[in-house]
Amino acid sequence: MRFLKCALFFAFSSSLIVGCGNSSKNNPRCGDGVVQSPEACDDGNTMAGDGCEADCTLTPASSRPQPITIDCARATDAPLPSGTCQVTAGSGAQLFTGSVLLPGRVLHGGQVLVDDKGIIQCVDCDCTGAVAAAGATTIDCPTGVISPGLINPHDHITYDHNTPGTDSGERYEQRNDWRTGARGHTAINGTNSKTTADVVQWTELRFMVGGATSVIGSVGTSKPSGWLRNLDSATLQEGLILKPAVDNDTFPLNDTSGTQLASGCKYPALPSVIGIANDLAYQGHVSEGIDTEARNEFLCLSGQATDGVNITLPQSSFVHGIGLTPGDYQKMAATSTALIWSPRSNIRLYGDTAQVLTATRLGVQIALGTDWTPSGSMNLLRELSCADSLNQTYYNKFFTDEDLWLMVTRNAAASINYDDVLGRLVPGAFADIAIFDGATKKDHRAIIESQPSKVVLVERAGKALYGDATVVGALASGCEALDVCGTPKSVCSMSETGKTLAALTTSNATSYPLFFCDTPPTEPTCMPKRPMAVNGSTTYSGVISADDSDGDGIPNAMDNCPTVFNPIRPVDNGKQADADNDGRGDACDACPLDAAAMSCALVDAADVDGDGVANGGDNCPTVANPDQVDSDSDGHGDACDACPMVNNGGSKACWTTIYDIKTNAALQNQLVGVRDAVVTAISYGGAARAATGYFVQVQPTDAAYTGADNSGVFVFGKPPAGLVVGSIVDVNPAQVVTFFSEIELSGGTAVVKGTAATLPPPVVVTPAEVATGGTRAKALEGVVVQVANVFVTDIAPPPGQSDTAPTNEFVVTGNLRVDDLGSLALPYVFPVVGVNYATVTGILAFKNGNSKIGPRSAADLVLGPPQLVGIGPNSFTREGYTS
Fold first, then answer.
1. Dihedral Cα 367, 371, 376, 378, nearest 10 deg
2. Is the pLDDT reported for residue 159 higher than 90?
3. Are 571 and 294 in contact (CB under 8 A)?
4. Lowest-confidence region among 22-36, 283-297, 613-627, 814-828
């Protein structure tokens, strides 16, 4: 009998899972929200409220277990006569009291103690006994909800002065459609960038009055300090100097020109795995769209395409990730690659957004970002409103309120490895705090349904920046009044920007406003709709009806997830996504990759491997190892260390040999280390004739030497100072890549360890053996070779792949090309047809579709009889080598 399944999912902070099985083959949709009779679906489950009922309905998130609430001694404090918080002046330390939000817990009447340096010292029901609490300024908020300052992990802040344009109803398939007007689409115009300090600071203020304290905003270093920590800027983090800046990459494939590929990875350029491996945090825009072209970006960046790279790494987060499948999200989860979700912008542009329910079930950590005002939200509160609307209307209330709150606090910080200092109220973290009015809406809901008038206080490292006038006035001086929808507020503009709020307002007279008192009138829609079918995709209006309970344009009777929005996307090739073909769509399938499973546990994105050690402190975050054994003390646990007895700490890779690099296909796109190799040539290129790389070989005296075949390799990257032909070097890490059919090492900084007594002797071969397609050409790429008694047969061979005439090459006996391949000018004259060389020596390389021998100096060309008849000097300025 075929068993289907459903499962109860709790919040990210919980690991309790209750599953139920369907024993009736007549009901293919147990647990999808369609009420069936007990006779049609009897799963043997009699426990009410476990999330998977006997009548096959899924319990909504609102009825599932919520975070643990603890009523502390002050939980019963009466509301203040007016306002949310009351300040009693004291020392530089601060003691907050209110409803404190923590992952998995809410402390009603709890306390947060902040020292005079802006660092949290205590979070508990009672912090009055701590040393810093003595005489501290108290901020009592009986109806206040105390949260970490919100973190916006994705925005293009220099575009946020723009007012959203009129929605024409057109929807796109991939971002280059609207950027460039590709594939018959209408380009979106009128989105100009402004980098002036006043404009950028205005947007930061807009985010801050919505409760934010940090942003990844692609602002670079184009402005002075402002309100927010710009986490992708090394100079604008507002005192946060403990962490390097996030490596923020809007075009990881360098496709600004509009490149769209359905397969293969011939994009303008691929990102450097070496560079990302050395980052604390990397963030790239990946798969922004819903078609095959959008998904292909992910394939080329996740190691799934043979000519791509793999940057799904614990330090990586991908922005958008819309057109993906369960297998793709599983790859992200397994490598702790986070997803930055921007639903409003996605829906406005594409009519759909990332498959966040599937991603969550598979363990992907999700954070919420605004994108930009032309198609996204004006602040995080409006983005939360969009996510909440989708959850309530289209996702069958899958997410709890805590889930959504985590997306703009802990998850946002963890997605960039900042969660030890931001995004959580824990001792040792910066006191970036936002307090919300919880008089009518409680706990997380007070934030999800908030607006700037309900933001009571925003502090960055214990410094008051914005909030109720009475509260800010008691904590800071020199701040200015701001009326927010009838509520008196204060903004500390001079201390943060050096200019008054009035001056900032005047200079932004044409910019998008700071706030609205209701739904912004020009706000982009958060209602999914698509008016045109592409590759069999669904058309839909997003309107809920009796026959279409989720608004995805597919009647309930034909919908494999009738209560969860899951239209057919262009990437789905005319069929609702169902990766395991079990009749239950991916969007509502507890186990979207396992048709036979009875139930599946929800993976905890904060502990992906489920070993009880949080990702940030786990020496094998994607491999379960509760014992954390690390035999070589290099920070990589034995369970995930390819060389557990050799210290390769930090980003260093395990040592391997050039032989393995050239012959082991499993090393393709992987990081490796090579040691004690000898430099045989240096490569030069470009108009400046700068060094662009170098060749190394295994030394014949090395114990690992087994012969000349596969003993040499090219290392692409600027050589370090002091590297010369004959240097003995270690290179670690470097990435194994195939560049136009030649295996190379990319990146990595060589450490020069000395100089070899002698260079490897050239391998004597026949021209035919190493000419293009020769029997030894592949094995000897990167090796010094020599041919003897050859004659020049052609001085103007046709250009090879991507080459242009004149090629500055000549051909000798056996159809072997000779080329300087980019060296500095060599002091010899170009030959004529018929010239005889006693020997030609050089590096064998595969360039422009041909195997070539590259002499390194005049000494590598030894004339034989008859003597050379010169026709003038030649600079040999194409891609080659010199000693």
1. 90
2. yes
3. yes
4. 22-36
Residue 839, beta-bridge partner list: 788, 862
Angstrom distance (rounded) from CA 150 to CA 205: 13
Report yes or no: 271 and 249 within 8 Å, Cβ to Cβ.
yes
Strand ordering across the sheet containing 229-230: 150-152, 212-215, 229-230
The pLDDT, as a whole number, for residue 297 is: 98
Q: Is the pLDDT of residue 658 over 50?
A: yes
Percent of the chain predicted with pLDDT > 70? 87
**Is residue 268 reached through a cis peptide bond, with omega within 30 degrees of 0 on the bond before it?**
no
Q: What is the pLDDT of residue 388?
A: 98
Conformation bin of residue 872: beta by default, left when phi > 0, alpha when psi is -120 to 50: left
CA distances from residue 294 to 322, 330, 449 in whole angstroms, order as listed: 8, 18, 33
pLDDT value of residue 218: 86
- Cα separation of 533 and 171, whole Å? 10
**CB atoms < 10 A from the CB of 624, how many?**
16
Instruction: Name the 3-class secondary structure at 241.
Output: coil
> What mean pLDDT value characterizes the chain?
86
Distance of alpha carbon 186 from alpha carbon 181, whole angstroms: 5
Q: How confident is the model at residue 582 (pLDDT cuts 50, 70, 90)?
A: very high
Helix axes 343-350, 380-393, angle to 10 degrees: 70
Tokens of 168: 């024409």
Asked whether 404 and 429 are in contact (CB, 8 A), the reply is no
Distance CA(716)–CA(691), nearest Å, equals: 10
pTM of the model: 0.77
DSSP state of 638: G
Beta strands in 55-176 (DSSP E): 68-71, 86-88, 91-102, 105-114, 120-124, 136-148, 150-152
Most confident of 22-26, 758-762, 824-828: 758-762
Q: Which of 786, 870, 880, 881 is nearest to 828 (CA)?
A: 870
- Tokens standing for residue 274: 């070496």
SS (H, E, C) 768-780: HHHCCCCCCCCCC
Other C-beta atoms lying within 10 Å of the C-beta of residue 573: 12
In whole angstroms, give the CA distance from residue 445 to residue 423. Answer: 18
The number of beta carbons lying within 10 Å of the beta carbon of residue 546 is: 6
At CA 357, angle to CA 352 and CA 362, rounded to 5? 130
Q: Concatenate the DSSP letters of all residues of 455-478 into one string.
A: EEEEEETTEEEEEEHHHHHHH-SS
Query: What is the SS3 assignment for 824-881?
Result: CCCCCECCCCCCEEEEEEEEEEEECCEEEEECCCHHHEEECCCCCCCCCECCCCCCEE
Sequence-ordered list of residues with C-beta below 8 angstroms from that of 216, at least 6 positions apart, any chain: 152, 153, 154, 155, 230, 231, 232, 246, 248, 283, 369, 416
**Among 128, 94, 124, residue whose Cα is nearest residue 111:** 124
What does each C-alpha distance from 754 to 620, 693, 759 come to in angstroms? 36, 19, 13
Q: What is the pLDDT of residue 24?
A: 28
Non-local (6+) Cβ contacts of 352 within 8 A are 290, 322, 346, 528, 530, 567, 569
Residue type, 72: C
For residue 402, what are the CA distances in angstroms to 52, 366, 880?
Answer: 21, 13, 60
> Mean pLDDT, to the nearest integer, of 757-783?
94
Rounded distance between C-alpha atoms, residue 406 and residue 496, angstroms: 28
Residues 812-837: b if buried by 16+ CB within 10 A, e if exposed: bbbbbbbbbbbbbebebebbeeebbb
Residue 64 DSSP symbol: S
Lookup result for tokens 């190379």: 744
**pLDDT confidence of residue 56:** 40
What pLDDT shows up at residue 19?
A: 32
State the pLDDT at residue 829.
63
